[in-house]
Design a protein that fits this description.
The chain is about 40% helix and about 20% strand. It has about 500 residues and is α/β, with parallel strands linked by helices.
Length: about 500
């Protein structure tokens, strides 16, 4: 048994902007089920405090001149003990964890997440008055990146694991900011936190953690190349002995078409025929003509370059010439939002766009569409394709990162042996996407092949069971690699 402090800047259902929240909301629960003493720590954003239920103040400490309280609760729906780092000046605000209500980054993000990192480090060392000492600190993404660096300052410390969910977000700030944070001067070095004359939070994890991992084996290989390395591929190659990939799991209770309360019609493998009721209801929601037959394609996600939204926009005028319809739910870059809205106005019968965020509509799309589109430029893991597979909605994906690791392309051989689960394409272009959609249409028109594809996806096991076990092995190897363990 290990005592694991799981640190994240978001966790579903308390606060969510993307897949990190899904992972931080479900992996700790899976670790708890494997009898680990796991505690989740995250900032006490206003939204978290409302959603957490009963909160008990359990400690109070001073960090960088700020008074901070630790509020204890359980992650809703689980037994996982959760500590919220309450510092109202930094976290009690409207907007999301990283952006203000106008979509601009909060100007004091460095101060906010540096404070979060200081608190995580103090809690893990039992220096916060909680009478609990971590064996492992599991950090996630740049917002927690300073923790492995800070812990090297302690004579004895827990082992550290740093998980990269997205290397494109690095937490880069100026030298002046570095100085203002009161970090030890020796951290300003290219073998420490400095990255091309900037402070890099993520380097704290990449340089100092005992073990680094990312959320799929393919992305773990890709980030060691200049194409996907975001300037950090050299460092990652240097640390390749410490680097691995573990595919994310999904919360199979929350994402289960057989019990999903968001759906107009629940269904499972044996009652797959009822899925069409969700399709008709979804078409109605999007004000599209109700039509059980025509292929309905869906997309949900952040409208940013990573997700290949520009490729979708480029391909849509051609796509609508085919016998199909398209629905999208997402928000992000303003130019993408307006281009999509414009296309929907031009093709009211074929394209439905909903700009915004809706948990319920996301579930209804997974169940209601026939196929789910993910033309990502890069995708560390991707969760929507895993949800799609479980919902009998074969995905069309670009063969990168976790998409390559979780979807088997339908070709003669894989259709024959029953391993096919979706359609995979490779080139980063609208033509390749159109080609993949054409292939999907032919498969869809052959009802027998299509059903085989749906059932093969639904049979896959993407629960956390196996991946959580892999994390336990990773924790063991981090503990072995830690040069100054506590208690020896
Ligand atoms: P990323 O973390 O890069 O955004 P993932 O595929 O790992 O991508 O996870 C995204 C998660 O966020 C999924 O659970 C997805 O359904 C959800 N999501 C993204 N955008 C929206 C939205 N507009 N409304 C509801 N859920 C969304
Ligand atoms: C990131 C990645 C996504 C991954 C998620 C959870 O946001 O972009 O691919 O699924 O983290 O690990």
């Amino acid at each position: 048994m290990s005592r694991v402090l799981f640190a994240s800047s978001e966790a579903h259902p308390l606060i969510k902007t993307g897949g990190l929240a899904d992972v931080a909301g479900s992996l700790p629960r899976a670790l708890h089920a494997l009898e680990q003493d796991v505690r989740l720590i995250l900032p006490a954003y206003a939204e978290c405090k409302t959603r957490a239920g009963k909160l008990k103040p359990v400690a109070s400490l001073e960090v960088n001149g700020q008074r901070v309280s630790l509020l204890e609760s359980r992650l809703p729906g689980t037994r996982v003990k959760t500590w919220l780092v309450d510092c109202p000046l930094f976290f009690d605000r409207p907007g999301n964890p990283y952006l203000d209500p106008d979509g601009e980054v909060w100007p004091d993000n460095a101060q906010r997440f540096a404070l979060f990192c200081q608190v995580i480090s103090r809690v893990s060392l039992d220096q916060a008055g909680l009478y609990w000492q971590a064996d492992i600190v599991h950090c996630n993404d740049w917002q927690t990146g300073l923790v492995p660096a800070l812990l090297t300052l302690a004579a004895q410390r827990p082992a550290t694991v740093f998980t990269i969910h997205n290397l494109a977000y690095q937490g880069l700030f100026s030298y002046e900011t570095f100085k203002s944070l009161g970090l030890p001067p020796h951290f300003w070095h290219h073998e420490a936190l400095e990255f091309h004359h900037q402070l890099s939070f993520i380097k704290g994890g990449l340089v100092f953690a005992d073990r680094i991992n990312t959320v799929s084996p393919t992305y773990a290989r890709e980030i060691q190349t200049p194409e996907f390395g975001n300037g950090l591929d050299g460092l990652l190659r240097h640390r390749k002995q410490a680097l691995s990939g573990i595919l994310n799991g999904i919360d199979t209770d929350e994402w289960n078409p057989g019990s999903d309360s968001h759906l107009p019609q629940k269904y499972n493998r044996r009652s797959l025929g009822k899925k069409v009721i969700n399709k008709l209801a979804l078409e109605k929601t999007f004000n599209l003509p109700e039509d059980a037959e025509r292929l309905l394609i869906g997309f949900i996600g952040r409208l940013v370059e990573q997700k290949g939204v520009d490729i979708i926009i480029q391909a849509l005028p051609e796509l609508v010439k085919l016998p199909l319809k398209f629905v999208l739910l997402g928000s992000g870059q303003r130019e993408y939002e307006s281009a999509l809205n414009k296309l929907a106005r031009q093709h009211r019968e074929k394209i439905g766009i909903r700009i915004g965020y809706s948990e319920q509509l996301a579930h209804q799309i997974e169940a209601g569409v026939d196929t789910f589109l993910m033309p990502s430029r890069f995708e560390p893991c991707g969760l929507n394709q895993l949800y799609s597979l479980r919902y009998g909605t074969p995905p069309i994906v670009r063969g990168v990162g976790g998409l390559a690791d979780s979807v088997v392309d339908a070709n003669e051989e894989t259709l024959e042996d029953g391993s096919a689960t979706g359609v995979v394409f490779h080139a980063d272009s609208a033509e390749a996407l159109l080609d993949a959609v054409q292939r999907t249409l032919s498969l869809y028109n052959d009802k027998k092949s299509w059903k085989k594809l749906q059932l093969a996806g639904m049979r896959q096991d993407f629960s956390w069971r196996q991946s959580a076990q892999r994390y336990l092995e990773l924790y063991q190897s981090a503990r072995k690699a830690n040069p100054c363990p506590i208690g020896l």
